[in-house]
Amino acid sequence: MLTYAPGDSLAHRLDPRSKLLFQLSFAWTAFAHTTPRGLATLTGVALGALLAAELSPRTALREFRFALPFLAAAPLLEALTLGPPWVVPGDAVPPALASYRVLLIFLVSAAYVRTTPVRDSRAAIQRLVPGKPGQFLGVGVALVFRFLPVLRADLARVREAMAARLGDERPLGERMRLVATAGLNRAFGRADRLALALRARCFAWNPTLPALRFSRLDAPAVALSVIIAAFSLV
Amino acid sequence: MATTTDSVDLVGDEVVGNVARAALFAALMGAFAYVSFPNPLSPSPITLQVLGVFLAGIMLGPVWGAAAMVLYLAAGAVGAPVFAGGSSGIGPLVGFTAGYLWSYPIAAFVVGAAVHGGFALRDYRDASVVRLVGAMTLGTAVIYALGTVGFAYVQNVGLVEAFLVSAVAFVPFEAVKIAAAVGIVRSDAIAAS
Hints:
Chain A is mostly helical. Helices cover 72% and strands 0% of the residues of chain A.
């Protein structure tokens, strides 16, 4: 699973806000220029982003292997037609280009995930989304990161216990009900204890955030994002 | 550290409870993505995520249920491995799964509003089975309608092809999830109300 890894690559030193801007302008342009030429240029940009993050394309691709059957199936199915000549290869070209564009967007977002720690992402969210919605998102995102591994372990234990008692021989609906019930009970129990702890520690709408500062490195990154976004208008 | 000179603005007691529950529910949604059952109709497994959307609407209500789903999407966007197959980042939110993921907050809101009969929270245990099943069927329709349209748009294919690739192998199992959700809501097994 691809997660943040500490490092001192170029992408690690960028401000999270410029990395978010870069991803959005990349996706925007990939949708505007889904042509062989546009995508060839964007492939270079995506590989550059991976290089800046010191992330190998193979590692990034492995992360999205679940997506590959869907990306392959769409063009294949589009090429089929009911009735002669049954297969029209030309019909598969636009969906194939679309699949490739999605793959490029995935690669660029993998570079962000690898190089941005949670607290920086949280600080970026709270600075980009004003007011209490931003605070809620920031706090909530930090809590999701904290509790995801805990709840995953809870659910894994439940499934293990079920399997040990031959619970995995039961019908699908019953297995889903049992796992979800146990998961909900754990989650609500943890939420009650968390709420108590937050109240005891004067949980406030305006906590102190880590400082985010645009460095000199961000100027070229932002400029590149603007150029890529402008490219979509051409 | 950034410094601020504002006085401390405490979060109200009720809101603290709701924030904690929404965050834990969002994390549970992420954990549900890893609970997979083999799918006889497709190489992609069935996960409990849609069940999580239903339960968020039913148990947290339309507003906080939808808020929990927004948290889930935001956490995934900045790198929590909570999307299908443990993936994360902005990619899934603008890729072919975009329609499905963005439909979750809307579906949770629709399910919550239908079960609670509006914005005000009522005891979901009092809701009739017909109301529960109707609400979740409506939620399923929202998820698959937006998901199919999103897939067709992003992948540049027709709506029929999009439905065949992204939905048809999963829709039958939604009935199983609806039945499981009714079972969960009707039983006394959930401690919190």
